Amino acid sequence: MAAIIILSTAPSHASARQIADALIEARLAACVQLLPQLESVYHWDGKVESDNECQVIIKTTSDAQQAAFDKVSELHPYAVPQWLIINDVSGSDAYITWLHDEVSAPLKRQ
């Protein structure tokens, strides 16, 4: 079970916070960081669009990735939410251990 970081966005801080709370409550992420404002520029339906969004940074494990994606997809207002995975994240032993402990906690209770 590798530590991973998932990058996503949301259209507002309220939407991002709802996603973050759901992931943390379900123990599908050890930590979710919300960066309040960024501008995204992209193509959509043949036009160049831009929107102000909130950056969502999800710290989780490879084992929880699909369940986290399912939860985000259920809550997210976008038809195609950003879901970019940075695999095999390394860090301090203490932090990586904490991350694994927090995400795998429900598995230990079963």
TrEMBL record:
User: What InterPro entries does the annotation carry?
Assistant: Ion_tolerance_CutA (IPR004323), N-reg_PII-like_a/b (IPR011322), N-reg_PII/ATP_PRibTrfase_C (IPR015867)
List, in alphabetical order, the GO biological process terms annotated in this UniProt record: response to metal ion
What GO MF annotations does this protein's record show?
A: copper ion binding
Please state which protein family the record places this protein in: Belongs to the CutA family.
Q: What is this protein called?
A: Divalent cation tolerance protein
- Which organism's genome codes for this protein? Alteromonas halophila
Instruction: Recite the lineage of the species.
Output: Bacteria, Pseudomonadati, Pseudomonadota, Gammaproteobacteria, Alteromonadales
The gene it comes from is: cutA
